[in-house]
Amino acid sequence: MKRRKFDAAALPAKTAGAVDDRFQVATPLRKLLNKVFPDHWSFLLGEIALFSFVVLLMTGVFLTFFYEPAMTEVVYNGSYAPLRGTPMSAAYASSLDLSFDVRGGLIMRQMHHWAALLFMAAIVVHMMRVFFTGAFRKPRETNWIIGSLLFWVGFLAGFTGYSLPDDGLSGTGLRIASGIMLSIPVIGSWLTSSIFGGEFPGEIIISRFFIAHVLLIPGLLVALISAHLGLVFKQKHTQWPGPGRTNENVVGERMFPRYALKQGGFFMVVFGVIALMGGLFQINPIWYFGPYEAWVVSAASQPDWYVMFLDGSTRLMPAWQINIPIGDGYVIPPLFWPTVVLPGILVGLSTMYPFLEARQLKDYKHHNLLQRPRDVPARTAVGAMAVAFYIVLTLSGGNDVIADKFHISLNAMTWAGRIGLLVVPPLAYYVAYRLCLGLQQHDREVLAHGVETGIIKRLPDGRFVEVHQPLAAADHDGHGELDYVGWVVPKKMNRLGALGPAIRGFFYPIERPAEAPVSPGHPPVEPRPEREEITSGERR
Amino acid sequence: MSIHTEHQTPQGREPLDVNDPRASRFDIVQEGARRDDIEIVHYEEQVVPGSKAERRLTRTVALMFLLTGLAATAFLVIYIWWPWKWEAGRGGDKLYTPLLGLTLGVALLGIGFGILTWGKKLLPKEVSIQDRHDQPGPAEDRKITGETMLYLADELGVKRRPLLGVSLVAGLLPVGAVAAAPLVGGLISNPHKNNQMFTTGFAPAEGGKKIRLVREDGRPIRPADVSAGGQLTVFPGIEHGVSNKHADSPTLLIHLREDDAQKSREANSRAGHGDYMWGNYAAFSKICTHAGCPASLYEQQTNRLLCPCHQSQFLITDNARPIFGPASRRLPQLPIEVDEEGFFVAKSDYTETIGPDFWERP
């Protein structure tokens, strides 16, 4: 029998055919390749969180090869001379080895930490985007809830993660965590004792945190993130209103070729930025903190930024202790309210918000078009209030550093925080509401009267008026007939093509300014002369 | 290739025969999109093939990829040959991690921006419109699915045979408890074992032997070791007394100045702690009653002790009463005296509970 000649060109087609014979993928794959995604810069924020998570998984696996989750006491004998001979836990010693005696270990640890900070930051900003544009409305309430839970699970991942090195700073954090658990009425002491395996600190908490940090919590995160993405995929992305865009369609680019390519590039950019930060910016220098000792702490002991708001709420809480005079007497310590009750309320409010708003507005329709924040002043104002609340708490979490750097009394900072927490959010509500109304009004004004041209005309009676370029043919009293459609209203002449676009170039102009029409009498009609590229001039 | 069509419903068009040899590849792609209810309404090359702009962009992308190769090679060279072991002083090893970050970052950004430029500038721009199809399914389907599920319940016949339902629940509940049992049973730990929440390392040893106050290195302390206005962190002089095994024992020994000591004594006797001080020396728990951080910043002038974690402040001359911040309970005081050899000892254990508050603290 004659052997058939091998045909390399036919190989991909043959393989594809063989795969489809077995798995019938051609149709679903076509649908996937064709899926249309709307495009806007603000849709990339969630992606930053996703990509940071991928970096977290990769760097985290590396770290587990060298980290030892044990609290047995060892004497450090590694490269870092200042700590040599110090008794410490095996966890801290292995974290130091990871930083000093594993080649490239420090950059991995720092990238892991930076990626975690970026992950949480991207989640928060993404959440704000979704909130302020109304992307959480029906049918996407479930995904909003999953997203809110992702913040809290990420919070736990961060806390268990930065506790693992068992250094002086993180040990103090653990001690506070044990105090928080203790403060829970009735079950506090039993809960704490069960989690720490006895009295604080015990000898087991680090290995329990380790398994939570590398298995349980990441597992939960992967599950939630998959559900989150799956729902975005199933329900299709929201889009901004605009020409041709309706509640029933998606206007954008197909996944292939361009969209996927841009996503891939963006992942590499996020990865690259994390690498730069991990290498160039020091984070959590555990070797300065020393091993955890129950009696050592320094001023300016701050947790990671996303935990700081709880630190702040704890600092601002007045010393209100509730005594229950039954039997020997029972106590609800003041620590309970800002660290257990407040987060509980925040979880409840944030997850329930879509339903609260739908109920308030009696709005049970499907919404696939986003809203500009200005068009929903009440929601925007509530969001501003929440952000203000969070910022006051976060600043109060570092109020000792602020007091120190700006020479302010520490107690004054605490009082400023206490009062600010009550005063600033309502103020933010009011200001945001007025801003929204003002912006709305300006949009309507431009639609009715036209764009300001910057040309001042003197009338025969001596008055000065600015000439406006109407956006549509005007009716008899000079007013246009345009309706607001929920999207950007052009407010500058160059947006209408009546002036040349802004001159391009970052440091210096890379093109000649286009000829701008001079007379306001016939602005947009003359075609703009073709641009010439500036050459070195040698050709002349 | 550049197309621009008026948006029309996909249905209003003749389907393309994909086996037609005259159909171009793009025709087939467009037909595929149509089958997914996608209308490509605008598809336009951004650069003219062979134009100067295209060549320039191609060069830019290629340059970025080459930069990536260069930076990645630099990363490897640095990774292998740069001195990386920590040494005292400002050696080159301090640059190891920054250089790795710089080269790795540049390599990744090069490939990232290269791909982005390729995709954004060299690939055709498009506007496609896809139908969402997110309206609820046909009412009939809803009904059929609902009926099918109810049919399942009918066939099981729990209504007709209530015993089955009851016995199933009665059987499953304990199984659920079995799943929880090992977890709860294994983890649970009695917080009041050995009275551990109410005792510290200063509890007198077997036979009532009083425990000495020692320094971090284990040496006992004479009154002369702490000057007036000074303070010292002390630990129980027992095995592991300085370690985290006795995390609730660290204590601040303070030598008060004469007039402050007088105030403290008066406050002490008001609180029924008349004999807790020895001379002008007083000892207070260092573990904050708020969240358990060490309250370790002692301000000599005002006799205030500040906890750096949440800024609770305690007035030492008034039984360490909390005077600012979130703490609601005074720092427990350790009754001290000097033994026959002239070293500080604890008369007894603390008489109040150490550390953060909890529900059943008496």
Which key terms come to mind for this protein?
heterodimer; A: 540 residues; mainly alpha; Cytochrome Bc1 Complex, Chain C; two-stranded antiparallel ribbon; 16 helices; globular; B: 362 residues; alpha+beta; 4 domains; seven-stranded antiparallel sheet; four-stranded antiparallel sheet; 14 strands; flat
Give the helix/strand layout:
The complex is a heterodimer of chains A (540) and B (362).
Chain A: H1 11-23, H2 26-34, E1 36-37, H3 45-64, E2 73-75, E3 87-89, H4 90-100, H5 105-132, H6 141-163, H7 168-182, H8 188-196, H9 205-235, E4 249-254, H10 255-280, H11 286-289, H12 308-316, E5 322-324, E6 330-332, H13 336-361, H14 377-397, H15 399-405, H16 410-449, E7 451-458, E8 464-469
Chain B: E1 3-4, H1 25-35, E2 38-44, H2 52-81, H3 96-122, E3 125-131, H4 139-156, H5 162-187, E4 211-214, E5 231-236, E6 251-255, H6 258-270, E7 281-285, E8 297-299, E9 304-306, E10 313-315, E11 321-324, E12 333-334, E13 336-338, E14 344-346
Helix pairs in contact in B: 2-3
Structural description of this entry:
The complex is a heterodimer of chains A (540) and B (362). Chain A is mainly alpha-helical and 540 residues long. Among the domains of chain A are: 33-239 and 252-295, Cytochrome Bc1 Complex, Chain C (Up-down Bundle); 450-496, no CATH class. Chain A has helices at residues 11-23, 26-34, 45-64, 90-100, 105-132, 141-163, 168-182, 188-196, 205-235, 255-280, 286-289, 308-316, 336-361, 377-397, 399-405, 410-449; strands spanning 36-37, 73-75, 87-89, 249-254, 322-324, 330-332, 451-458, 464-469. A two-stranded antiparallel ribbon of chain A has the order 1-4. Chain A has a two-stranded antiparallel ribbon with strand order 2-3. In chain A, strand 5 and strand 6 form a beta hairpin. Chain B is of the alpha+beta class and 362 residues long. Chain B has four domains: 3-44, no CATH class; 52-130; 136-165; 206-346, Rieske Iron-sulfur Protein. Helices cover 35% and strands 16% of the residues of chain B. Chain B has helices spanning 25-35, 52-81, 96-122, 139-156, 162-187, 258-270, and strands at residues 3-4, 38-44, 125-131, 211-214, 231-236, 251-255, 281-285, 297-299, 304-306, 313-315, 321-324, 333-334, 336-338, 344-346. A seven-stranded antiparallel sheet of chain B has the order 12-7-6-5-4-14-13, with no helix packed on it. Chain B has a four-stranded antiparallel sheet with strand order 8-9-10-11, with no helix packed on it. Chain B has a three-stranded antiparallel sheet with strand order 1-2-3, covered by helices on one side. In chain B, helix 2 (52-81) runs antiparallel to helix 3 (96-122). Chain B starts with a strand and ends in a 16-residue tail after the last strand. Classes of the chains: A mainly alpha (540), B alpha+beta (362). Chains A and B meet through helix 2, helix 5, helix 7, helix 8 and strand 4 of A and helix 1, strand 2, helix 3 and strand 3 of B. Chain A: It is an enzyme of class 7 (translocase). Chain A: This is Cytochrome bc1 complex cytochrome b subunit. Chain A: Keywords: Cell membrane, Electron transport, Heme, Iron, Membrane, Metal-binding, Respiratory chain, Translocase, Transmembrane, Transmembrane helix, Transport. Chain A: GO terms for molecular function: metal ion binding; oxidoreductase activity; quinol-cytochrome-c reductase activity.
